[in-house]
Amino acid sequence: MITRIRKNLGGLKYALAVTARAHPKAAAGQIVLGLVQAALLPTTVYLTKVIIDSVQAGHTRDAWLAAAGLGLGVALIWTVVFAYVKLVFLVFDHTARASDREIMELMGTPPGLDHHERPGHLDQVQRIREDRGLLGGAVNWLAQFLRGLVTIAVGGALLLAVHPLLLVFPLVSLGAMAIAKRAGDIEVKVQEATSEPERRRRHLFEVATLAESGKELRVFGSAPEVARRHHDTGAEVVAERNRGQWKAARLATGEGLLSAVGMAAGIGIVLYLAIRGEATAGDVILLVSLIGMVANAAGALGIQTALLVRTGKLGTRLMWLREYAKQSAGPAVPLPVPARLDDGIRLDGVTFAYPEAERPSLDDVTLTLPAGKVVALVGENGAGKTTLVKLLSGFYQPTSGTIDVDGTDIAHFETDEWRERIGATYQDFTRFEFTARETVGIGDLKNGYDDDAVRAAMTRAGAEDVIDDLPSGLDTRLGARWDDGTDLSGGQWQKLAIGRGRMRRDPLLVVFDEPTAALDPQTEHALFERFAEEVHAGRARGTVTVLVSHRFSTVSMADLIVVLDGGRVAESGTHDDLMARGGAYAELYTLQSSAYR
């Protein structure tokens, strides 16, 4: 229990820090003004009592002084309220941007892909996405919480000054607050339990609304089916959350009854004291006002507590994500990445299984990727080709075995430093809808989007024609969704991605994972012919080029061909060696080449 409270308080501290960094002065101003308001409200009520008692007693001077104080207090309260509301919107606006940056940074920092692919991690990320709006109100809720505590404390002190029995009401109100906090916990628990179906509902919404799926939805007439699944999944989420909300509402009813009983008892005590002549008319006004004020403060405390608890849980998830990034960032004392490769990259007994997978994607793979050579990976879908590329790129660490770069385990490198020596183009490339210069240049930010560097990369990619065909050259804004944007074909987007992957001039590893699926076989062959020539011309650096392709006319140009089957190396060698062996590669090559005759 204590550990959980400490963890939640640590998460709340982290969440508040995000808000405080967004606009420190406005955040501090909210806290100060909230406390000032908490002190002013009971003070004005007390001055009202003084006015009434002074008038009854004929103390004119005291009545006028109290009236002046009351007027000043009311003016200050309204001034504080207006200033406070302005600060609330100011902090919320700045925090909305800061929290998005924080989450983007945390999502993009981890070197691995677990948080994008593991269901348990995805549930955590989904909760972060759902609740990130809480960060904007965190300081407001803390200020209101502190204001409520001060109001109850000051109100309790004033009630105690009249009669000790009146302290029963603030204590009852705090009990009601504890019930409200319990109701909030129930809603949080239900939200966590429905994270996975909520992710599924959002996925179905994206499928139904994104342009990428529009063609298939219409051709197959599947839009109604997707809508039905979205409705059913949404109904499941709503039903489960409604059950939790009803349970919380029943608790909230108990809270209301307890508050009502406390208020009735407090007013009864006041009337009893007034009837016995132990309380003046001013005391009655003061006490009734204080009871209402304390009741409102206690009710607000319950709500603010529940919101702060949710914010604290969001903070703990953000802390988890940051800690996850630190744990997977690499060794404490990394070894330097070599300037060039002499031997190459060796996989020794490498096995890798995705979380929750029934069987490993790679199983005891021992393989050498020679320095200065082009290595092609072939095999059926699911053979382990892309998984091998992910391991080489540092997205995952092997479950067992090692990957050595010139004799040094890749795990001993600082991940970012190793990746700075990688040039890569993947089949599922990103369509950065920036200017053409930025879309390509983002592949090596050290060059600062230099025109010459971008054009050189496109030339190395054999795709300089794409830039020449754009209406404003490198300044062309890409993407049809923008007013000044230019739409591109799938092949043009792919060529830009290949150019992006060729931005780095001195890579030790170049990866092409099905990067030309949108290009015709002749264009792909010409591109890789140029790549092979460049690799062979630059052997002094010892760059290893890894090519994944299903087109054997391209694969045949590689210096080494590795055939994967069921996560294992079935055979390897040059094109001529494998054809002479008459094994799986020869069979697949003959089968594919016969289709073009």
UniProtKB/TrEMBL annotation:
<feature type="transmembrane region" description="Helical">
    <location>
        <begin position="149"/>
        <end position="172"/>
    </location>
</feature>
<feature type="domain" description="ABC transporter">
    <location>
        <begin position="345"/>
        <end position="591"/>
    </location>
</feature>
<feature type="transmembrane region" description="Helical">
    <location>
        <begin position="256"/>
        <end position="275"/>
    </location>
</feature>
<keyword id="KW-0067">ATP-binding</keyword>
<dbReference type="Pfam" id="PF00005">
    <property type="entry name" value="ABC_tran"/>
</dbReference>
<feature type="transmembrane region" description="Helical">
    <location>
        <begin position="64"/>
        <end position="85"/>
    </location>
</feature>
<dbReference type="InterPro" id="IPR036640">
    <property type="entry name" value="ABC1_TM_sf"/>
</dbReference>
<keyword id="KW-0812">Transmembrane</keyword>
<dbReference type="GO" id="GO:0005524">
    <property type="term" value="F:ATP binding"/>
</dbReference>
<dbReference type="InterPro" id="IPR039421">
    <property type="entry name" value="Type_1_exporter"/>
</dbReference>
<protein>
    <submittedName>
        <fullName>ABC transporter ATP-binding protein</fullName>
    </submittedName>
</protein>
<feature type="domain" description="ABC transmembrane type-1">
    <location>
        <begin position="31"/>
        <end position="310"/>
    </location>
</feature>
<dbReference type="InterPro" id="IPR003439">
    <property type="entry name" value="ABC_transporter-like_ATP-bd"/>
</dbReference>
<feature type="transmembrane region" description="Helical">
    <location>
        <begin position="32"/>
        <end position="52"/>
    </location>
</feature>
<feature type="transmembrane region" description="Helical">
    <location>
        <begin position="287"/>
        <end position="309"/>
    </location>
</feature>
<dbReference type="InterPro" id="IPR011527">
    <property type="entry name" value="ABC1_TM_dom"/>
</dbReference>
<dbReference type="InterPro" id="IPR027417">
    <property type="entry name" value="P-loop_NTPase"/>
</dbReference>
<keyword id="KW-0472">Membrane</keyword>
<keyword id="KW-1133">Transmembrane helix</keyword>
<dbReference type="InterPro" id="IPR003593">
    <property type="entry name" value="AAA+_ATPase"/>
</dbReference>
<keyword id="KW-0547">Nucleotide-binding</keyword>
